[in-house]
Write a structure and sequence with these properties.
Length: about 300
């Protein structure tokens, strides 16, 4: 079921076009990742989705409500984690959450519930200015979850965090998605994070240039390659080329682009005494992304 619908949206800053005729949908309970280079338009899109700015043209709706005409109702359904933390550095984690909760007129248990979800009870009384980047991000997410939003917008939530902290944060966010049907829209530069999404949009210079599931994108835009490192390489390449089958040298190894599992099995059977070390490499999301930049 479509939860967020962006239809033909353009956004100009003065004469600069940051988004051009963007259309996308996000289904309820799914996680959608927006990928793109610096300046591609990701933050602009998030700003539009969380009603901080309005489109120059086009429509956006959330749970059936138009963002420009039903802004208050929409805002009650969203949580946002901005690229830059919006917590007050001089206050404790608890004070930050409590003040925010009062603004939402949230119930008394909301702060405890949010702190428990992000596992930050132990740093509740610490001043935000003295927290590590990972602890601060947890507090940011706890703040965004205070009103129990239906959709969470995450604008590069893990930039600058170490791999272990990123993984911990993601296991919390994914659990929320799974258990509470939370809809998530994420922008990120980390391709392994986008890999966890149900659907991906790649933006380049304000336009959507690729879209699909992570596996669909890989299947469509990348190749599976067999690399033969050791063995009777000269014999293999001679036979393959004589039979009209593509086979290339790559840095003193043999490279064969595979089109099917059957082809891989046939090669291994044909050269079982000639191959002593090989590897089959599937295309990655990074290949999809970089190939787009190269094409551009
Ligand atoms: N308030 C603004 N006024 C004028 N131009 C802006 C404004 N905000 C963004 N832009 C421009 O719009 C384009 C898209 O910017 P945006 O911040 O959306 O990109 P981004 O994909 O989020 O980049 P990054 O990954 O670096 O955060 C850029 O060319 C940027 O300079």
């Amino acid at each position: 079921m479509t939860y967020v619908a962006v239809k033909n949206v353009s956004k100009f800053y003065g004469t600069h076009c940051a988004l051009k005729a963007v259309s996308l949908t996000v289904n309820k309970g799914t996680m959608v990742a927006i990928l793109g280079a610096n300046g591609a338009g990701k933050s602009t899109l998030i700003s539009l989705l969380c009603t901080l700015t309005t489109p120059t043209s086009g429509q956006i709706s959330l749970a059936g409500d138009d963002l420009t005409t039903a802004t208050t109702r929409v805002r009650a359904k969203i949580g946002v984690v901005f690229q830059q933390s919006v917590l007050d550095e001089r206050l404790s984690v608890y004070e930050n959450l409590q003040i925010r909760n009062r603004l939402y007129q949230g119930d008394e248990v909301a702060v405890e519930r949010s702190m428990t979800a992000l596992n930050i009870g132990g740093i509740a009384n610490r001043c935000v200015g003295a927290l590590s980047g990972g602890q601060r991000r947890r507090a940011d997410i706890a703040r965004a979850l205070l009103p129990q939003p239906e959709v969470l917008f995450l604008d590069e939530p893990t930039t600058g965090l170490d791999a272990q902290t990123r993984r911990q944060l993601w296991s919390i966010i994914k659990a929320k998605q799974r258990c509470e049907q939370l809809t998530i829209v994420l922008t990120t530069h980390y391709l392994e994070e986008a890999e966890q999404a149900n659907y991906i949009y790649i933006i380049d210079q304000g336009q959507i240039v690729r879209e699909g599931t992570p596996s669909g994108l890989k299947q469509h835009y990348t190749q599976t390659r067999m690399l033969i490192y050791k063995g009777n390489l000269q014999r293999i390449i001679t036979i393959e080329r004589a039979a009209g089958r593509p086979c290339e040298w790559e840095n003193q190894h043999l490279l064969i682009v595979l089109t099917s599992v059957a082809q891989c099995v046939a090669l291994l059977q044909r050269y079982q005494t000639d191959i002593s070390r090989f590897e089959v490499k599937e295309g990655s999301l990074e290949d999809v992304y970089l190939r787009r930049l190269d094409d551009g």
